[in-house]
Design brief:
Length: about 100
């Protein structure tokens, strides 16, 4: 299934760092998202953009994961020729990731 089927997202940026929060619509889906949305998978998903590390911060009380992606915005707003220099569209792009439908035990 696509991540967008069970979650929504928000994005922010600061310099050359993009931050994306993925939030489960239903708390029962949070463990599934937590299991399958790893920093490695996120970095792989954005392999053409993210040149640095991806760190994941879990916020179980909100059913959310926050990913901080370093060296992800081609130098940042004032240095990039990218169409979306602020990285806001990355929050939509992460939702196109495939995750298994298998429930978490």
């Amino acid at each position: 299934m696509l991540l967008r089927d069970i979650a929504h997202s928000r994005a922010g940026d600061k310099g050359n760092i993009s931050s994306i929060a993925v939030i489960a619509y239903d708390p029962k889906d949070y463990p599934l998202i937590e299991r399958h949305l790893t920093p490695e998978r996120v970095k792989d998903h954005f392999s053409s953009l993210v040149q640095g590390t991806v760190k994941r911060y879990a916020v179980p009380s909100l059913g959310a994961l926050n990913f901080v992606m370093h060296d992800a915005l081609a130098g940042g707003v004032t240095r990039s020729l990218a169409l979306d220099a602020h990285g806001k569209s990355l929050s939509s792009a992460i939702l196109s990731m495939e995750i298994p439908e298998t429930p978490v035990d």
